[in-house]
Amino acid sequence: MTATVEPTPTTMRASVMTGVRTLQIEDRPVPRPGEHEVLVEVAAVGVCGSDVHYYRHGRIGDFVVDAPMILGHEASGVVAEAGPAVKGWAAGDRVTFDSTIYRLDDWYTRRGLYNLSDGR
Q1: Could you give phi then psi for residue 106, rounded to 5 degrees?
Q2: pTM for the complete prediction?
């Protein structure tokens, strides 16, 4: 089942972490999907433990937030646009995702346990 598709706006509102324990709402340009990407109009986003760490401490392990960052990588919404090489997804499709990019060649990922992969 697909949802009704509205024209893609040119700007969006984003909650941006600009420093430790500092968030501000900003208007940002809506990105265009690349050849193999989809653009998702986010309807809901979860707060992950990593988001809390970034907000409270400005880091997780050796990764330090040193530039403004939009938190929230576990979301759901509707595909707004699909790149020209995308197969199997179209505007209007309802989706949920974790936007982390995982290695495809490690033991955990090959077994579908993406969340346990250390990404190295």
Answers
A1: -100, 165
A2: 0.77
